[in-house]
UniProtKB/TrEMBL annotation:
This is F-box domain-containing protein. Residues 5-52 form the F-box domain. It comes from Rotaria sordida. The lineage of its organism: Eukaryota, Metazoa, Spiralia, Gnathifera, Rotifera.
């Protein structure tokens, strides 16, 4: 055969499958199914291309888009009627869910991820009168709900009953439930304290991912409501909430995976509520912790982690963590150095690599200990000194220091945090000894720092040099910046009353401007 005449369809099926598996399943179905070629029809209808369908587009900047109507039209009229029996998992938004599900019977559909969820979706589709009732009640075992902003006049506790409890009752065979939010949206969190054990009760649920109001609500989830639960991923809004309920404090033998995230935890709450909970998890195999502990006298180091947490979990084999300690400077207290903290981590944690950051600012000292690779989307309050590693999961970062941030520091930030979406900067010290140097350096040559995915920038407690650092196109490139929080007077000065050409480009896409006057 003359190789120059070999076409795509001349390739054997095995090679065609290898090529097609590299492409989007939705693109393959849309472009190749029902194009009057029997061989292609057979190939693209295989379960490899039809078991999971995604009708939602998400970007690295957390934007969410539905597929264009023309594409959905073709799927509903031509494609889905031919492949619906193969579909096991469906990703849709609340606008198009009814239209897509009414196309076929979907006898094998067990997993549903629903975007733009809110209380109205419950009243519209999760009812006995809904044409989708059979699929929801009898087939769905894995349900993922992604909220959009849901402002309600009813109380959080009533929302828990009307929405969260109702979902557990309506989906009769549910084994896996995840309730999350799209970025920067508000919705009522789960609140169970002082509600009876029959509220949010399930005898089938194995996995739960949810945000709760308080640590008391976390204890309520583990207090006998979910007998078959083996995986709990919980994000806590606050640690303490008044409650008259005494929760079951027995061991949790069924729990195999536990993930806890708390942005604000007082040291007493950490010692009296969180640590006792870990002692109940003797069969745990995987643990994920993101905890920021405030007002603690000494740092949480590797020795503490081993003696207070790991020693109670003999079956643990995966441990991802970020634990940050915030302490007041005290001449009577000797804090461990970074090297000493690192040695305690290396000596006591053998699961994977570990590292630490110690940052001194004003009268505070902050110690961050964490596993590598860093698996979390948030990193808070680091300074000039941080490890030379790639934080590929971090989306939100705050940097603060008493030592000036030089231009090279921001080069390192852009390199080490390649997918950064949101950045908070705090530093009152000028970048240079000449405080008005920025005012005359528009033609100065320096490397331009690029933040390709940064959409939100907060310049509140900063010297004016840092305003110029980010708004000056000869220093920074912000192609996706849409939200800017800034001091009004500094903005006026740096932009020369909104007339300075060098500051136009980085501000041109800003849609939300939050300004204030000191």
């Amino acid at each position: 055969m003359n190789q120059s005449n070999v076409g795509f369809l001349d390739l054997p099926n095995e090679i065609l499958l290898l090529i097609l598996k590299k492409l989007s399943k939705m693109d393959i179905l849309y472009s190749l199914l029902d194009v009057d070629h029997q061989r292609l029809d057979i190939i693209v209808q295989e379960k490899t291309f039809t078991n999971t369908l995604n009708f939602v587009l998400t970007t690295l900047t957390d934007d969410i888009f539905s597929l264009p109507d023309t594409i959905v039209d073709r799927f509903c009229t031509t494609i889905l009627p031919r492949i619906h029996h193969n579909v096991k998992s469906l990703i849709v938004d609340s606008v198009s869910i009814e239209r897509i599900l009414l196309v076929g019977d979907y006898p094998n559909l067990t997993e549903l991820k629903l975007y733009n969820f809110n209380r109205k979706v419950v009243s519209q589709y999760f009812t006995d009168q809904s044409p989708l009732r059979r699929i929801f009640q009898q087939q769905i075992t894995n349900l993922i709900l992604v909220f959009k902003t849901d402002l309600n006049k009813i109380s959080v506790k009533q929302y828990t009953i009307d929405v969260y409890e109702y979902i557990l009752k309506f989906f009769e065979n549910l084994k896996d439930l995840s309730i999350m939010r799209s970025d920067s949206c508000y919705f009522p969190l789960l609140q169970l304290h002082d509600l009876p054990l029959t509220t949010f009760f399930s005898s089938t649920l194995n996995k739960l991912c949810i945000q709760v109001m308080s640590f008391q609500d976390c204890l309520a989830l583990l207090g006998g409501r979910l007998k078959q639960l083996n995986t709990l991923i919980v994000d806590i809004s606050s640690m303490e909430y008044p409650s008259s309920t005494i929760y079951n404090m027995d061991d949790l033998p069924n729990l195999k995976y536990f993930s806890l995230k708390s942005f604000y935890c007082l040291t007493n709450d950490y010692d009296t509520m969180i640590l006792p909970l870990f002692r109940r998890m003797s069969n745990l195999e995987e643990l994920t912790l993101y905890i920021i502990v405030h007002n603690r006298t000494i740092f949480i180091d590797g020795t503490h982690i081993y003696n207070e947490i790991l020693i109670h979990m003999p079956r643990l084999h995966i441990f991802n963590f970020y634990i940050s300690t915030r302490a007041r400077m005290d001449s009577l207290v000797r804090h461990l150095s970074k090297d000493e903290i690192q040695r305690t981590l290396n000596n006591n944690i053998k699961y994977q690599q570990v590292d630490c950051i110690v940052n001194y600012e004003h009268d505070l000292v902050k110690c961050h200990v964490f596993s590598i690779p860093f698996m979390f989307e948030d990193l808070d309050n680091i300074g000039n000194i941080f490890p030379s590693i790639i934080f590929s999961h971090v989306r939100r970062l705050s940097v603060q220091d008493d030592v000036p941030f030089k231009h090279e520091f921001f080069n390192r930030i852009a390199f080490s945090f390649p997918l950064l979406n949101e950045l908070y900067v705090g530093n009152f010290n000028p970048q240079s000894s000449i405080s008005d140097e920025w005012n005359s350096n528009d033609n100065q040559l320096c490397s331009i720092v690029t933040y390709p995915y940064l959409i939100s920038l907060h310049l509140i407690d900063v010297h004016i040099d840092y305003v110029d650092q980010f708004l000056n196109e000869r220093k920074s490139h912000l192609p996706r910046l849409t939200e800017l929080t800034i001091d009004y007077n500094q903005l006026i000065i740096v932009t020369d009353n909104f007339t300075r050409d060098a500051t136009r480009l980085n501000c041109i896409k800003v849609k939300e401007l939050n300004i204030y006057k000191k």
